[in-house]
Specification:
It contains three helices and seven strands; from the N terminus they run βαββαβαβββ. The protein is of the alpha/beta class. The longest helix is centred in the first third of the chain and has 14 residues.
């Protein structure tokens, strides 16, 4: 498990997550963040196959496509994101119980304040949640 207490997140990736969350309203959005050697490079939106305002279910087919691409490109799954359209910017009980990637950063986008969305990051391992501070990079 990584013990990093902070990460650098390009502003364009943060904004891509927020834009995706807004497009999926009133439902939660979901997606992954990929990169190399711990550097976040790209946000990939994933279809939630059972759209709901309080849950997401990533398309298994799209997940296979992403992992196949990562296998050939040399990239890595560095993060998983989803939104809380009306809720807090912290993991729910369901989020914690379904966190199967202990090395991934779990990003939550809260649209509770639609004018000032909030993005926070967490590590979740063995149902223990640790917040990670985000240092936003301009690019």
């Amino acid at each position: 498990m990584s013990t990093t207490n902070h990460i650098a997140l390009p502003l364009e990736l943060r904004n891509a997550m927020i834009d995706h969350a807004r497009r999926e309203l009133p439902n939660e959005c979901c997606g992954v963040v990929i990169g190399q050697q711990g550097v976040f490079e790209r946000v990939i939106p994933v279809t939630s196959i059972h759209p709901a305002p309080d849950a997401y279910f990533m398309s298994p087919g799209e997940q296979v496509e992403i992992f196949t691409e990562l296998g050939t490109s040399g990239g890595s799954l560095l993060g998983i994101y989803h939104s809380h359209p009306k809720g807090p910017v912290s993991p729910s009980g369901m989020d914690i119980s379904l966190a199967f990637h202990p090395d991934a950063v779990y990003f939550i986008v809260s649209l509770k304040n639609k004018k000032q969305p909030e993005v926070r990051a967490f590590r979740i391992e063995k149902q223990v949640v640790t917040e990670i501070s985000i240092r936003e990079n301009p690019a």
